[in-house]
Amino acid sequence: MSDFTRRDVLKTTVAAAAAGAGGSLLLPQSSFAQQAPNLKIEKGAKLRVLRWSQFVQGDIDQWMANTKKFTEKTGVEVRIDRENWPDVSPKASVAANVGSGPDIIVDFFDSPQLFSDKLVDLSDIANYLGGKYGGWFPVCEKYSKRGSRWIGLPLGAAGACMVYRKSHMEAAGFKEFPKDMDGFLKLCKALHDKGTPAGMALGNAVGDGSWTYWLMWAFGGKMVDDKNNVVINSPETLKALEYAKELYPTFIQGTLGWLDPNNNKAFLDGQISLTNNGISVYYAAKTSKDPKLNEMAKDIYHANFPVGPVGKPTELHLYSQSYVFKYCKYPNAAKAYLLHMMEKEQYEPWQSAAIGYVTHPLKAYENNAVWKSDPKNLPYRDTVKNMLWHGYSGELGYSSAAALNDYIVNNMVAQAASGSKSPKDALAEAEKRLQRFYKV
Q1: Dihedral angle of Cα 176, 177, 182, 187, to the nearest 10 degrees
Q2: What is the value of pTM for the model shown?
């Protein structure tokens, strides 16, 4: 955990001006020449931000540098608290219930939809940013808007791609990574036969287990329809589960118990040659002090998820967004901070420092140099563009959040894949579990 305080910036021009003004501080026009009107930072403003711990070190280093830059410009004290990412949402729920805690939460998925009435309207800065930077990708409106109101400000997504050893893929008889489901299954079978298997999490892994949603959607299955009716028990979902049953024997043993860290460890340990993950595996190998991992990094490549019979990408990624509670004493300062962090001068260096670990939600940032600096980064550029929301194709809220947190889709795929239940029985159980949350 780290803090930036006014002691760090007492000699700055802005802080001195604020101290002598005796009133609200208008954010310098040189900083945000096109900002929304009437965004005045309150006198004596200070902020507390709760965000998830970094997956790659460059993320937090540049985040803190950008925060310090904001403090130097405005004199606003900003305290940054970091927690393991699964712990952020529960802490946010506590804050919402008791009416005190961090001013700003940087969270994942649809948490703000659970207490939208307790959040500051961020429409002014969201509309400004969208207008300036080419618009938001469609999934952002699903996650971050409630009706016409922006209750969250999209940060991006910790995108996942297929991570693989190129030399092992070629040894298995493939020159390029498959782009369809049949080819992907054949590759996994060939890797298994060569003794260099694949492995993807089938335990209760929120992040790396999201490939189970991709699998269901790729064949045309989904949990609910546009009106939140449970429709998971369909021929399309059944086909996805039958596919999973063929795929599972190609995996390394133990994936039924894998949580989010397991596939990273197995890949870097040389136990598997293919998995789904963020760019953090490559980052860890590339920046390691171990020469063996540096050598492995040269052989690590990435590909977007294969496209199924539906004929379009059906990916799910760790979508992240920021939101501000109404109990915040300095809402304009909070908005100014979020705006500052999303402007090009801060966002692109931050994204580059994390070598694209978080994919942008604003279309203009697809031109960030990070996507060209290393060809291996490029597949992550389109992950937000390609993704659906986890409650697809229904609305987000209590039901979708409960279904995600109850690992219904993950468990259904794991049961059918492993043979602990037949695909039909796994499907029927998932349907019953969903009906508890999506009541007519």
Answers
A1: 90
A2: 0.90
